[in-house]
Amino acid sequence: MKVIIMGCGRVGRQVSRMMADEGHEVTVVDKNEEPLARLGLDFKGHKVKGIGFDRDVLLAAGIETAEAFAATSSSDNVNIIAARIAHNIFRVPRVVARLYDPRHAEIYRRLGLITIASTVWGAERIRELITYADLDTTLTFGGGEVSLVTVETPPTLVGRFVRQLNLPGEISVITITRDGAALIPTSGTEFQAGDVIHLAVLATAMERLQALLG
Predict the structure, then answer these.
(1) Which end of the chain has a smaller Cβ tally under 10 Å, C or N?
(2) Does the pTM of the predicted model rise above 0.85?
(3) What single DSSP character describes residue 76?
(4) The CATH number of domain 132-213 is 3.40.50.1820
């Protein structure tokens, strides 16, 4: 995947290194040389110095053929401007903008932009780890409203059916991993001992899920 990361702060550097190490074609854009230098000599991607929402800078970074764009600078305004240019002008398929002020998230979501509010996400993740220790939250969506949760089938659920765990709009069984192979269950699929269940769960339904799991 060809990815452009705008902003080379702590988050931008970490995402850039992770994706470059995974084999993606990564280009990092930052207005200062020093943050780019912190990527290190072993960084496998490309670096472009310049303003992250400047058209010529974005063209130099290869935005015309980019498959993804992440705006991770320290300024909400800069992130949103850059994200909107990538999304609306260059039609980059996947665009994500980091936000510091979660109050802006809903506004930008209406504009068709995916946003990550660090404060909200971090707080929600901490709450989950403290409160729901038996549930492995592997991914969150939006501002943490929906989580992807993984749990091994408890004894109380063995012999019961997927439809008994599904709650429309709150809890949905997405896949089951059984004997190392994943399957997409139907409402009549029966849970077996050793199954690993993957669920999409509304944040407000975590306690209901725990109750259903016994």
Answers:
(1) C
(2) no
(3) H
(4) no
